[in-house]
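User:
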Amino acid sequence: MALNSTAIRSYCLFPKPQGAFVSIGREIRGVLSGLLWRGIKWSGRPAWGAFALLRVKNLTSADLRLGSPVFPEEPAIRAPNSTAEGTPSEVIYPAIGFRTVSNALVGSNRRVSAIVSGTTLLLPEAVDEGPWNIRVGDPATGGVLRQDSTHVLVRMRQSTPTLSRGIFVGSWSPHNWFHWTIDTLPSVFLTRYLPKEFDDFPILLPESFHARAAWGEPLGLVLGQRKVKLLRENQYTAVKNLVWVDSPTCPGPLPTRAPSGPRFSLHRTAMLAYRDHVLEGLGLDAQGFTQSRRIFLARAHGSYRTYNQEEALKIAAEFGFEPVYLETLSFKESVAVMLNASAVMGPHGAGWANALYCRPGTIGVMWTWDESRHDNWFANIGKLADIDFSTLFTGSIHTNGHNVDPRQLREHLRQRFSNN
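Assistant: Predicted structure:
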């Protein structure tokens, strides 16, 4: 049975619990979804009312590809957060191009960029070998209720919208500035390489970006004349003729047995092409900037992930750093700040996306908690931009939160800037 928009009709089997009943409600929903999971598997049917049992697989170079790749395969950037982790074994990033799919279902699952084709949940080619951890945490996203090593149980919502055409560029955490500018927009940029027959195809973007005016500034640099269609959160859209653009980054999903070293990869050539395009669109010539400022990526009062920023700022000032609040700047201004930087420091956070525009040789100092030791998003950007990047680990988030030890920070800065 093919899974399509006419076969899917949804209703709210698991109403959202309120107040003190949240925990109990989750337990009840867990029991019900478990019964449903076993019932569908026993019946042998791929769909049952609003629910579908989907096989999970990743694409291969032979799947659905149309035309020649835009960028060939090459060794991936997969930089460790710490030199103590050693050099990871070489990973080949697959060629970057696009694929066409008929009668696909596209969602806005912020944890997994994937599409539904028939009775299969398709993942990007660049993911590590599975099985993969598709259902991550609560609340569940993308309607994913259960999974095992080969299948996921997905609940579809009622009145599935239908589009005649569209371009999917991923959906990984678009509410986060880092993932928006590093994981989504590079794929939007790559739509410029599509054949003319797809010129009237709109780009499908998660609706969460639409409420953030600042998100639109860099989007405008890569969008061109294409229209945008918004994907609603936790709802699937049926697309009769879909173009799926390969992403030059691979933020997940991770295998259920995640690698012990750095987890994420980049395609160097494609990402540098994106970077150069953005700089050209902003009218900024990197060679015209002098690396003359030491920048502290500060956070405004009330920001997410508070920490002992005032203590850190005082220590940073001893080494010539000045606070910069990127959220108060236009995108062009924030890029210019990075081009002028001789050194950048700050906590784990989305502001490190802008380090993509630092000039080679810039010193980068970031601190993060021990549990993120292998989350190498920022180290990858450092490697891509040829930054002298280092990471300071501050202890477990469960005991130290997001704080940085002042003595540890001062000593780390002393070692990094002893000759400067």
